[in-house]
Amino acid sequence: MLKTVSIDGPDFSGKSTLCKIVKGMLESAGLKVCIRNHPTTETEAGIRARSLVIQSAAKAKIAEAMCDDFLHTLDHVVDDYDVVIFDRFCPSTVVYQGVDGKDEVFRRKLTRHFHAPDLYVWTDVDYDGAVA
Q1: Is the dihedral of CA 117, 113, 99, 50 positive or negative?
Q2: What is the mean pLDDT of each run of 10 residues along the chain (132 residues)?
Q3: Three-class secondary structure assignment of the chain
């Protein structure tokens, strides 16, 4: 069975909305579901990542904090649920942090983690379409 799903895409493309719809559908089928919006506000790494983004810090530092946050979810959250939906995962880190993001994701082997998403969904809705 599908255990983890990543929904990625540009800002305002409907990621969070899609996560909520899918969560509701899965819960109506009796599954215990969690949405993790990354960077989270529940971990030191997530809070650090958010702070670094606001400060326009070096992309390598942001990528490191993001990967720490992903690892926390993979190592400490996934086992508690039937399905975990990642609202942003590695693809977004690579897009936003570029080569530094790609290097950190591959160095940490996040996509090979035993709880890495089983399914990746990329939303491709432009801002005007999302508003409509």
Answers
A1: positive
A2: 89 90 97 95 94 94 95 96 95 88 92 93 80 71
A3: CCCEEEEECCCCCCHHHHHHHHHHHHHHCCCCEEEEECCCCCCHHHHHHHHHHHCCCCHHHHHHHHHHHHHHHHHHCHHHCCEEEEECCHHHHHHHHHHHHHHHHHHHCHHHCCCCCCEEEECCCCHHHHHC
Q: What phi and psi values does residue 18 have, to the nearest 5 degrees?
A: -65, -40
Residues 6+ apart with CB under 8 A from 129: none
C-alpha span between 90 and 117 (Å, rounded): 10
The model carries a pTM of 0.88
Q: Which two tokens stand for residue 27?
A: 């819960």
